[in-house]
Amino acid sequence: ASIQGQWASFEEMRQAGLTKTLSVSNFSPSQMDCVLSMDTASKPLVNQLPYSVAYHPGKSVADNTKRGVLVQAWAPLGGSLGGRFSSSMKGKCAEIGKQYGKSYAQVALRWIVQTGASFTTQSKNKDHFTEDLNIFDFQLTDAEMAELSALA
Questions:
Q1: Coil vs helix vs strand at 40
Q2: Phi first, then psi: what are they for 83, rounded to 5°?
Q3: What's the CATH fold of domain 45-149?
Q4: 101: number of Cβ within 10 Å
Q5: Where exactly are the structural domains of the chain?
């Protein structure tokens, strides 16, 4: 089925009250434009992409933002498609985090937020969830952002 045909089906489900919003995953700019060119009542709210300090292709956030779509990073701390965090990447994040009293993971997640994206994480450990959300009491400098961006 075509992207437009699939989107039309999703739109019918939304209109039937089966979901409140519609989002996509791993859409390229051309795929997003295909959906946005349709005359429908809704557009994708979020494009969930592999996006991290270790893997951030091109202008992912800017390409989606200019289309009015939010980027949500999946595998924000690395993963098979989210980019593996090398020990040097973890080390650089940890080094930056030391001055803020933050872990390497908190620095990596803060970088995502400061690029204009959001993230989703998963864990069976409640402390990890708490740590993941404790990233809004510090801000990375422009130099730190550039240093982290250059790691990928």
A1: coil
A2: 85, 125
A3: TIM Barrel (3.20.20)
A4: 10
A5: 45-149
